[in-house]
Each structure stands twice: as structure tokens, then as C-alpha cells.
Amino acid sequence: MTRTQQGFTLIELMIVVAIIGILAAVALPAYKQYTVKTRFAEVIAATGGLKSGVEVCAQTGSCLTAGAIAGIAAGAGDIPAIPAANNHVASVAITATGTITATATSNNGLGGQTYILIPTLTAGGQVTWDTVTGTCYTGTPKIC
Q1: Can you tell me the distance from the alpha carbon of 59 to that of 74, in angstroms, rounded to the nearest whole number?
Q2: Membrane spanning segments where (predicted)?
């Protein structure tokens, strides 16, 4: 009666372990970067209400002076109140000309990066957000 081989040899097991180690070495840094970008997405989302408020007040003309955006104040008119800080958002601010600056916290992989939106008023009272800047674009790694 012949006996058939059962199980794996030692070399086969070592090859599998080596492959798993290589995959883990590549995947973990990518996963870490992904989680930091996901946390920063909350900072970007915190600007949404203020962006909408600037667009509405420009379309209704309530914040226009001499054809330019001016006199904006958070919590007044069409502009909502500043969102509260949380685990990933340190602060959000808006200037009288509609520039919105959101700052990340300095924890959970974030390093206090800023996300700045500058509105441009086009004909017909429409607002475009063509100028988007901040340290999230210039830092290493870029997270926005």
C-alpha cells in the first residue's frame, strides 16, 4: 500500500510567509496614508455649509458691494454659524470677502494642515471656487 503525501512542505510554508510579509510591507504604508486622507476629508466637508451660504448671499445680492463679495459674517444673513471643532477639525473661519479657511487638528496623523477656499464672483452673481489652496496641497504628503 502506497502512502500519499499530505500537507505542505517546510519550503512551501516559508514561501507563503514571505509573500504575506511582502504584501504587508507594501499595504500598511498605503493604508496609513489612506486613513489620513479620510480624516482630512472631514476638514474639507466642514466648509460645505459656509460655501453654500456664500453662494446664496451672492445670488441674492445680500453680500455684494460694488460688484464684489463683502460684508460676510458667520451666523448673519445667509451664512451659517461656524461649525464646531471636533476630532479632526480644529477650526473653520470665514472672512468678510468670503474666504474660508479650515484647519485640521494635530492628532490622528493630521498635522494642523489648512484648506483655504477663495471665492470668485462671476457675471450673474454666481460664485466659483477656482482658488483652492492651503498647506494640505504643499505639504508632504499631499492630503487634499
Answers
A1: 17
A2: 7-31
Residue 95 lies in a domain: yes
Question: What integer pLDDT is reported at residue 139 of this predicted model?
Answer: 73
**Across residues 124-130, what is the average pLDDT?**
85
Residue 93: in which H helix or E strand, if any?
strand 89-94
Asked, for residue 29, whether it belongs to a domain, the answer is: yes
* pLDDT digits 0-9 by tens, 11-44: 999 999 999 999 999 988 888 888 999 999 999 9
- Contact at 8 Å (CB) between 129 and 117? yes
Query: 0.85 exceeded by the pTM?
Result: no
Number of domains in the chain: 1
- 143 found inside a domain: no
Three-state secondary-structure class, residue 95: coil
Domain assignment present for 27: yes
Residue 96 CA: distances (Å) to CA of 73, 114, 121: 6, 19, 14
**Range 138-144 average pLDDT:** 77
Domain range for 59: 10-138
123: Cβ–Cβ under 8 A, 6 or more apart, which residues? none
